[in-house]
Amino acid sequence: MPNDDRTTVIHRKTPESAAMVANVKRAMAITASLNRLTFNDADEVRALFSDLIGRKVDDSFVLAPPFYTTGGLDIRVGRNVFINQNCTFYDLGGLDIGDDVMIGPNVSLITSGHPIEPSQRRNGVIAKPIVIGKNVWIAAGATIIGGVTVGENSVVAAGSVVTRDVPPNTLVGGNPARVIRSIAE
Fold it and tell me: Distance between CA 167 and CA 163 in Å, rounded?
């Protein structure tokens, strides 16, 4: 399996894979409690999300349940972040979300996957980080794949699949996402 300085590789039947599975179970228990809450339970949602990621989120953080993740401990969230309903974050590779980010409903941020080669697919997990810059808007139903950085002030159009970095101040859309135009004030 390939490995560069931004790639995490976890092989099956290792202490690292056992720790990953334990963290998935921990996250599933926390998200089950989180997903019983409503939008009106903002303080409790923030408390449970803080527990999930292992650090306190800012009081300006808003999440509308339900929410799903495979771990949580590799998520970092800035101030004034809004995460809409039914989002899925696979954060094993690391997920950094900057200040003032808006994430629409049904968005998937997927940092991990498996090797492409059929003989290697079940041998482990490969993960790369996702970085979301300040003041980014990720619209409904978008998917962002591991290894991608979304530059500040950018917009990812609804339903897009982002497989490459997004420059700052840019609107991208499509599958795979491509630059549609620059965004100016």
Answer: 13
Which tokens hold the place of 104? 């629409």
Would residue 153 be called left, alpha or beta, if left means φ above 0 and alpha means ψ between -120 and 50 degrees? left
Residue type, 18: A
- Specify the pTM: 0.93
- Residue pLDDT, tens place only, 95-124: 999 999 999 999 999 999 998 889 888 898
**pLDDT per position as a tens digit, 137-152:** 999 999 999 999 999 9
Out of 11, 12, 55, 114, pick the active-site residue. Answer: 114
Active-site residue flag, 114: yes
